[in-house]
Amino acid sequence: MMRFTTLIKNPADWMTGEGADNAIVLTSRIRLARNLRGESFPGWAKKEERRHALEVMRPAVEGLSVMKDAFSQELDDLTSVQKQVLVERHLISREHAARGEGSAAVIERRQSIALMLNEEDHLRMQAIRPGMSLRGAFESLSAIDDELENALELAFDHELGYLTTCPTNLGTGLRASAMLHLPALVLSDQIGQVLQAVNKIGLAVRGLYGEGTESLGNLFQISNQSTLGESEETILRRLERVISQVATHERNARDKLLEDDPAMVSDKIGRAYGVLRHAWIIDSKEALTHLSLLRLGGDLGFLPQDTVKTCDALLMDIQPAHLQLHSGRKMTPEERDSIRAEIVRGRLQSLEAPDIRSTRKKDESDPDPEIL
Amino acid sequence: MDCDICGKHAKVHLTQLVGGQIKKITLCDDCAKEKGVTDPTGFALAEMLLGKTPGKVVPAAPAVAGSGRKCPTCGFTLEDLRRIRRFGCADCYNTFRDDVNQMLRGMHKGPKHCGKVPAGMMELHERTQRLEELRGKLDQAITSENYEEAAGLRDEIRQIEIRAAAAKQTTDDSLP
């Protein structure tokens, strides 16, 4: 089995991979909730019952074909920083990290598939992919689900579907979500309207790290709310349609911003570049805000296209637990702000200043009629 | 204003957003205490369980807090559900099925699963669904006094049940 340091040494496949419409949709994620028949749910189970459920599940999960040479660890055996790194990589949930004895994580070596054992449900399995690929993620996870069904007796009801600890997950147990980068909709003040419309059709919109967290870096997560009464196919189709519409709105808003106010866009991207290249102290929030604008600059052609990838890797690497893992010790928030700035400066060292030709070109091709 | 339950002078006025709609409930001191309206969030869940709507308050169902009904598998009660908002085990759904059905109203797109089924349960699932569909049609045929169709449907239901019983017997016999 793989060690923690080996697992985390490389960025996850979905952090570096190229996906469809990667400029706006960062990642697609599918989660399935499953439970064992005849065993108390983890939150209600006594310690020995939790251990028993884990003993039943763990060999089946470790035996999955996709989990060859995977990382498999009880959470009690990890330090709090290690657990937090897994949370920051979206490989386990905050709730799972907080669980006591009898909880474990089994993570595929490329970090695209992660299974939480004894989280809120006995099994929470997740597939994550770069770009817009909900269907691909679902298919890979569903195959794993089929494989597990042969090895475990899962709780299923002919009316209510897969039985889950919380009734909000009944039925398919499916939570499908995509992480979207929507800076232009935020800059043009259209974001509220768009998110309200998404919410109205029964989809949830959340900030970067799931439920109850604020949106940072113009990143928004859109997911289905209802899990019972419609098929996986219907849920995915609706989500795909809505995400594609939101991405189109964002694309249009980017075009319009460039057309209406290129100086403002150049200024924002230029300032973000300036701060990130030259700051010596930077907190998480400020870093995320500027990285979002730099990412936008990469997509709009102000900066090289691979700036998008550099920013995505930084989004992960500048988070508190990643910073502490990087430096090998616990740090105060002030120390983290310095190290964060150092890492950002280092990564952006060879990045040349934004090319604002697009602004100049517009000025040249569209001269002020007053002057003529 | 009068209490929605007993009609006495009401002192407790609750306004909550349920499924996007504003719902108001007025209660007297005694009824408020009896319903445990000390924790508004806990009360919202009780309200869902009872399927109560303003002006149409139903008396406390026997299943609610204090009745002592327990899940035989894990010992979970509806009191526990009010407290932790999660179930104790998969069998709780059977134990509290009526309450669950009321609770699910408005929570999901529909009341019935129409997604993936574990491969090993597919046959049973399809049979259960077919029987349910036929029983629905049978009820309709009887209501509309279409006895010929009803007889046909009843025969079909019997056939399926006999085949299912035979299959079960074979499985049981093959068990050690």
Q: What this model shows, in words?
A:
The complex is a heterodimer of chains A (372) and B (176). Chain A has two domains: 251 residues, Glutamine synthetase/guanido kinase, catalytic domain (Creatine Kinase, Chain A, domain 2); 103 residues, no CATH class. With 372 residues, chain A is an alpha+beta fold. In chain A, a hairpin with a 5-residue loop joins strand 3 and strand 4. Chain A starts with a helix and ends in a 7-residue tail after the last helix. In chain A, the strands form two sheets. Chain A has an eight-stranded antiparallel β-sheet with strand order 2-3-4-5-1-8-10-9. Helix content of chain A is 48%, strand content 14%. Chain B has 176 residues and is mainly alpha-helical. Chain B folds into three domains: 58 residues, no CATH class; 56 residues, no CATH class; 53 residues. Chain B has a two-stranded antiparallel ribbon with strand order 1-2. Chain B is extended, with a radius of gyration of 22 Å. In chain B, helix 2 packs across helix 5 and helix 6 packs antiparallel against helix 7.
Largest sheet of chain B: 2 strands, antiparallel
The total beta strand count of chain B reads 2
Number of strands of chain A: 10
Order of helices and strands of chain A: HHEHEHHEEEHEEEHHEEHHHHHHH
**How far do the termini of chain B sit from each other?**
68 Å
Instruction: Look up the CATH topology of the largest domain in chain A.
Output: Creatine Kinase, Chain A, domain 2
Instruction: Please work out how many helical segments of chain B DSSP would assign.
Output: 7
Reported CATH architecture of the largest domain in chain A: 2-Layer Sandwich
Catalytic activity (chain A): L-arginyl-[protein] + ATP = N(omega)-phospho-L-arginyl-[protein] + ADP + H(+)
Binding site for ATP (chain A): 27-31, 90, 124, 175-179, 206-211
Family (chain A): Belongs to the ATP:guanido phosphotransferase family.
Protein name (chain A): Protein-arginine kinase
